[in-house]
């Protein structure tokens, strides 16, 4: 065959071949994360990879006691060690000695009293990490060990552990008639354990002193402006002289960075005049950052003979640990959602958050809402059992809907398709039963060679229905700012919203692609030179920061279209941008975005601020929340009733999402949230006997692995747009975390007939002494 013939044949084949699929583009597409390849190939630069010329290494001395009086701190031996460049204690803090996310009540370094195991006492900078650790160990601290208060119920009567007292907040919620009573009454006492957020990478950071006497902190921060302000206050500097640069966030399911870790780092850099790096061990990470609030809950539900709720009474006690942190916000969520997504005409809830000598508690996905969900769903199971009704039916008869009123007096104005979600999971086909053959033995609880006899295995089906609030609450000023620039056909987004794995950078690219028809969109790195965007939690960045990006992009769109609209004598509303082309409604105008830009640089800055909320009043009443999200989960479990081992077979999930912005990303977020909830239900419990963190490592703290993850079936996504939210979307990560532990516990109850009133579920709670 001649070259000409071969070329012609190749050309014909090319014409006949189907066109390649277009790349994902805009809102609604499964656009892959920009950093996905770097993270999977191991080339993504995490905070632990940071380096600087003349680097020093830091180490922190932490208290071995949960409660003690500090009699003296002698740093002489540490300072005299070769290679040690600085040792700092509370005496070396030039500014505010206190810090804290929700309330500044936590010392940078303990001075007179140690209030929890692992509290920082001193920090060292040296020319080698081993030298730094040895020098920290050489600091001599003389303690008078005190009896720790570790039972939150004892905190009410104990001597004050803090100058602010032991009670952080008390919320009494009164709604309806206190004399109301139902035909049946069920009661329960429930305990929720301490969950650690267990970030993929332990805390790490680099502090670099600046020529103006300030400092730059390179951190995996999730709230850089709050961290900057706390650092500036501790360092005695103006905020403008402290810069936080966000780098290498490996993911976050809570407060990613412990401020008590950041502040010693910056102090050492200022003291030495050299860059200082600190990489925490996993043990230090467990001791330093906050955990989910352990909670004690007492409930009494009144219902009529049809299973409809008449009154809910509850007492909720949150163990805040040594310091307040975000316990006030967690308590507000717990009290407000104590009755769950159900219509309750009468509710009387008492909630307390108290200080103890346990490790500090703080923000973890679904804080407050997760603990009460486990309790009120257990109560719904008890009502169903007492009336001989199907557990799903009891929930359906009480399901909350748009227009109903919460016990806080707030009317639910957002979509609340609770009944639709419940029906979807109830009607989804159940998984097949395992076969009692050796080949399928791995399907039984306990895994290969870990299960008992197949005849001891019971299958249970249970339900969980949960709700969370989105954004901040009780008057929190939720605002974010974003800038969108377009030049030479490339768009750049500047927004201080940190990408923690929730997909904000991907969403920002999609918004700009959709609005401006520009394919290439870059999201700039985050630092505190940009306007604040707030913390990366409770779906904030999808709503507030995404809304700011959308508004800025629309302003640029107007700048782009105005000259064309003026030229053709029409308004910009009559022009549309699709697939990089600008066309008019009548087809007269047709050009590309690149041609319309013609080398111009366009930019705009915009803010997004949701409608205001108000604090709960002295009776627990008020419009405290911007919006809410709901989820229903049906759990199927197999339980070995002799060994107490539990295998989660399947979790069927239905969730209201408002609008699906990125299908692949949304699915991954739901599956991750459900799996995290399975850990809460079965394995995750940071044990702290007498205030001492026991086994602070990933061997002693049992996280669910890929082998523990059940089949997760997303059976329904209700896209009923929330009209007050940008794009109508709702947050999706927290509510499956809240709901799945309750569903798993419900299924274990169904399998065993046992009450299951504690999370995580201990093996003895699932053992049945006599086979039914």
Automatic annotation (TrEMBL):
Gene3D superfamilies: Aldehyde oxidase/xanthine dehydrogenase, a/b hammerhead, Aldehyde oxidase/xanthine dehydrogenase, molybdopterin binding domain
Domain Aldehyde oxidase/xanthine dehydrogenase a/b hammerhead: 41-147
GO molecular-function term, one example from the UniProt record: oxidoreductase activity
Annotated SMART domains: Ald_Xan_dh_C
Annotated region (Disordered), positions in chain: 1-36
Compositional bias segments (type: Low complexity): 1-18
Pfam families noted in UniProt: Ald_Xan_dh_C (PF01315), MoCoBD_1 (PF02738), MoCoBD_2 (PF20256)
PANTHER family assigned to the protein according to its UniProt record, in alphabetical order: XANTHINE DEHYDROGENASE, XANTHINE DEHYDROGENASE SUBUNIT D-RELATED
Originating organism: Streptomyces paradoxus
Record-linked SUPFAM superfamilies: CO dehydrogenase molybdoprotein N-domain-like, Molybdenum cofactor-binding domain
Name this protein carries in UniProt: CO/xanthine dehydrogenase Mo-binding subunit
């Amino acid at each position: 065959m001649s070259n000409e013939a071969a070329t012609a044949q190749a050309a014909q084949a090319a014409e006949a071949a189907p066109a390649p699929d277009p790349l994902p583009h805009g809102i609604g597409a499964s656009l892959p994360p920009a950093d996905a390849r770097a993270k999977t190939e191991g080339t993504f630069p995490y905070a632990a990879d940071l380096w600087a010329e003349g680097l020093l290494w830091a180490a922190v001395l932490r208290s071995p006691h949960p409660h003690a009086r500090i009699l003296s701190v002698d740093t002489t031996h540490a300072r005299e060690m070769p290679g040690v460049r600085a040792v700092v204690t509370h005496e070396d803090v030039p500014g505010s000695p206190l810090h804290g996310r929700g309330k500044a009540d936590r010392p940078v370094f303990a001075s007179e009293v140690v209030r929890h195991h692992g509290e920082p006492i001193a920090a060292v900078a040296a020319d080698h990490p081993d030298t730094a650790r040895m020098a920290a160990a050489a600091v001599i601290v003389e303690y008078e060990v005190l009896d720790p208060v570790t039972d939150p119920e004892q905190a009410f009567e104990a001597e004050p552990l803090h100058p602010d007292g032991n009670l952080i907040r008390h919320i009494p919620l009164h709604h309806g008639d206190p004399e109301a009573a139902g035909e049946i009454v069920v009661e329960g006492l429930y305990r929720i354990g301490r969950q650690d957020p267990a970030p993929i990478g332990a805390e790490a950071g680099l502090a670099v002193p600046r020529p103006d006497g300030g400092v730059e902190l390179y951190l995996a921060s999730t709230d850089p402006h709050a961290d900057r302000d706390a650092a500036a206050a501790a360092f005695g500097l103006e905020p403008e002289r402290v810069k936080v640069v966000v780098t290498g966030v490996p993911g976050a399911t809570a407060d990613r960075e412990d401020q008590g870790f950041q502040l010693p780092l910056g102090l050492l850099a200022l003291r030495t005049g050299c860059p200082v790096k600190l990489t925490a061990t996993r043990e230090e990470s467990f001791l330093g950052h906050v955990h989910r609030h352990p909670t004690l809950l007492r409930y009494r539900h009144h219902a009529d003979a049809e299973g409809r709720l008449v009154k809910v009474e509850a007492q909720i006690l949150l163990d805040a640990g040594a310091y307040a942190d975000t316990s006030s916000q967690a308590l507000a969520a717990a009290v407000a959602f104590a009755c769950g997504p159900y219509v309750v005409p009468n509710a009387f809830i008492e909630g307390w958050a108290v200080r103890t000598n346990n490790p500090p508690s703080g923000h973890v996905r679904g804080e407050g809402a997760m603990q009460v969900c486990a309790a009120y769903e257990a109560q719904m199971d008890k009502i169903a059992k007492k009336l001989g009704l199907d557990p799903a039916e009891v929930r359906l008869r009480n399901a909350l809907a748009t227009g109903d009123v919460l016990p806080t007096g707030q009317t639910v104005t957002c979509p609340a398709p609770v009944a639709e979600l419940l029906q979807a999971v109830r009607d989804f086909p159940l998984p097949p039963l395992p076969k009692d053959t050796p080949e399928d033995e791995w399907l039984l609880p306990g895994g290969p060679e870990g299960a008992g006899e197949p005849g001891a295995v019971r299958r249970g089906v249970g339900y969980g229905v949960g709700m969370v609030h989105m954004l901040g609450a009780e008057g929190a000023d939720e605002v974010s700012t974003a800038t969108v620039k377009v030049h030479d056909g490339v768009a750049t987004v500047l927004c201080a919203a940190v990408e923690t794995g929730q997909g904000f950078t991907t969403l920002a690219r999609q918004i700009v692609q959709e609005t401006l028809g520009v394919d290439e969109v870059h999201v700039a790195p985050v630092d505190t030179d940009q306007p604040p965007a707030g913390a990366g939690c409770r779906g904030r960045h999808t709503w507030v920061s995404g809304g700011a990006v959308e508004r800025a992009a629309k302003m640029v769109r107007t700048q782009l279209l105005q000259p064309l609209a003026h030229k053709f004598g029409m308004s910009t509303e009559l022009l549309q941008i699709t697939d990089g082309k600008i066309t008019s409604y009548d087809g007269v105008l047709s050009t590309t975005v690149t041609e319309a830009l013609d080398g111009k640089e366009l930019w705009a800055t915009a803010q997004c601020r949701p409608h205001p909320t108000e604090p709960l009043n002295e009776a627990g009443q008020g419009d405290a929340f911007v919006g809410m999200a709901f989820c229903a989960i049906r759990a199927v479990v197999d339980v070995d009733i002799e060994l107490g081992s539990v295998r989660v077979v399947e979790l069927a999930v239905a969730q209201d999402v408002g609008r699906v912005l990125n299908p692949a990303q949304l699915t991954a977020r739901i599956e991750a949230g459900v799996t995290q909830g399975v850990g809460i239900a079965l394995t995750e419990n940071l044990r702290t006997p007498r205030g001492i963190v026991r086994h602070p490592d990933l061997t002693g703290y049992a996280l669910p692995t890929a082998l523990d993850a059940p089949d997760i079936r997303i059976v329904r996504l209700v896209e009923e747009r929330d009209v007050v939210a940008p794009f109508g979307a709702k947050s999706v990560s927290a509510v499956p975390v809240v709901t799945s532990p309750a569903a798993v516990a419900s299924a274990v109850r169904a399998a065993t007939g046992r009450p299951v009133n504690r999370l995580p579920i201990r093996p003895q709670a699932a053992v049945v002494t006599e086979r039914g």
